[in-house]
Design a protein that fits this description.
879 residues; Rossmann fold; three-stranded antiparallel beta sheet; DNA binding
Amino acid sequence: MLNTALADVGEGRGSAFVLVGGVGCGRTSVLDALDAPGFRVLRATGSAAERDLGLAGLHQLGLPVAATSDDFSFCATVFDNVRAAADARPLLVLVDDADQLDRPSLRALAFTARRVAALPVVVVFAVHDPPDALAGITRVPLPPLAPPAAASLLKDRVGRDPGEDLLADLVDLGSGVPLALVELAEALTPAQLAGQAAPPTAPPADGRFRAAVAARLGALGPDARRFVLLAALDGDGAGPATLDLATAVRVAEAAGLDLAALDEARRCGLVRVEDDEVDVPGRALRASLRAEASVADRRLAHQLVVQALDPEHDRFRWTWHRAALAAGPAPKLADELLAVADSARAAGDNLAAAAAYRRSAALAREPDDRAGRLLAAATQAWLGGRPRHARVLVREVLPLTTAPHARGLADLLLGGLALRDRTPALAVETLLAAAERLRSRKHAATALVLAGEASCLAGDSERYFAIAERAERFATADDPPYVHAAVDHFRGMAATFRGRHADAIPPLRRVLRTAAGLDEPTLKVWASQAAYTLGDAELARDLAVAAVRTAGNRGMAALLPWALVYVAMAELLLDRHSCALGSAEQGVRTATALGQPNSVADHLSILALEAALRGDRDTATGRLDAALHDVASRGLGRPGALASWASACVDLVDEHPEDAMNRLRTMASGAGGVHPGIRVMAAPQYIEAAVQCGRRGTAAKALHVFDDWAGATGSTARLALSARCHALLAANPADAEERYRAAIDLHRASGTALELAKTELFYAHHLRRERRPKLARDQLRDALRIFQRYDATHWARRALTELRATGEAAPQATRTTPVTVKDLTPQQAEIVRLVAEGATNREVAARLFISHRTVDHHLRNIFAKLGVRSRVELVAFLR
């Protein structure tokens, strides 16, 4: 934007901007990087030391002015001087740390900046908190770097791959602040890079970031410094997340602090006051403030909070700050913390519970107590979406105990973590070791089911069968219902993968009955998979949505991406593509935020399949490309199989049925070679490809397998697909017509509109070849309407081609009501939302995992549909 403004000066258009960002965000670097050849550059930097020295800023710029008693005349004189300075060549005025500039200089420069539109002048202010004097000037926020950009910057500065765990720790600590990230990377020791020493816990003490923080802190008055430290200690990343404003007021009253000092602390950028909460923005800044404070100051801050809090109304925070004052083992205080941790866990505040369990462990005297509380902390950290923190806590447990059950709990946690962010093979081994050690039947059953999930993720069906047999031996008659459900889940899914669909039905139905009586999100996900396998997509979706809701209410964020996989898959089976798109996109966002790359790959593959089933080649390819690296490097069989299915659909769109057949025949997906469940689900596309290749015998064999599944489950949606496949294979026209009509009736009964339209298209093609064009046209008109509603442009083109072949011209648009955003497809609506927020086409593409060419294509269609010609008109249309 700024470089564009510099280029516009050549057209006689001037402009002004205010860069807004926190400590270390790169404001000065942006000013340094402006490309202004041919410009005269005037630059000034605000300073607290000269803030009360009138005209100091203008003196730095070299503008000759004298103070006058008339403010307007003074500002007008500055404007005239700037205009004169731009007579010979364009002028660029840069003012860094403008919020520290003396008041007369800032007011005059702001006055000038608002009046340069017709001058060859660009003015850029850089500030943390824009003062009122800069009102009305275009603001350009400099937000923290997104995690992928932060990781890229770190790798570039380290000069090598620092390893997944260390990189994730540095990204988290750096908080997206470029200066902090650069200095963290450059300060790494060889031992830290080799994983032999703990990662840093704060930016380096001798770095510029810490110096900038210390300078801002030192410039504050004593009361403002006290407020900053209170906020930094209360939201230290381990304890309560923020200091509420009411507590800050009570602390101020009890300690005799001037509450106005809190606003001073806010203006300097060291604290943020939002929604009645006071916190320090970002872990890098918080860690630096804590490191800069003396032990005495930290203790005093904790004491002030303890004195101000009422233990009856905020026992957690009161206990937490008392515990922070303890210098060694304190068993009684440790037990108090244990009680408040249990309460936080019951309330679904997993991260607060994790912090309290960990601090309780530190204050406990006995090693077994410490180990048990650290395991509880690790469990809550994992459920709360902090996988790296959970691993750190588990590592602290191992030296404290050799008890099999404790080691089993540690393995259960590590295996559950590996299932989401490591190779599935590692997860399987760790989880099986956990099942062997655990005393709790429920925990052991969970470990076995997760090991089975990991083998499915790897595409290793033989390993799954072996684990299912182990679960069968594990079961006893007096097990609780949860354990029986786990074993029944194995029985049903193993039978399904072996093609014994009738045998799968009784145990899977028992899973559904058990899940109905237990409010366990994990069990709800198992039941959703059971319902999906049984062909009840509505129930599968409802169960998965219930798992998402329950996990969310209980703060169990780690389970959300897993549950959302089954929400999205059920919605696809129901042909609710817009819902599936939303669920899978939510899954990508959530899994990315939680550090679960395996779940990201699952959802990207589902997104690719969704686009491919609509015939959207470019979108499907872009999403496949986004998932490819993790699928290959981690040995992810299930997303690999889904990707093969999606790729085969793309091959059919491209009229390459032989390629589609080859993909679906092997469906390579990791250690097991073929994912049996997804191979059966993809049978309709395999049969379509085989028929196009003239391989009718091959198609018939595949259809026999699909019929076994569809017939055993009674799924109306799958029976419709079966009838369509039989029609494609029918040897005589009468049989084909009967099958097509049956398929259409079943599609309508199941509500699967997109597949109905495809069947109508195939049926119309059959009718046209049988010289029955009138009947063909009836099918095609209905199919075309459905394809257009689903934004399935490839299929719509095919329907139009068939219509023309029947002798009918393409239908003309007859809409008379105005088109609104509600008439856009879900993906078009999301693109419009991002464009309205100012995202470029490439940024939109990155957010939606599609190519920028696909964004271009969608925008052209959006412009045409809404009757606008540009992004500017689009934004105006939305207003």
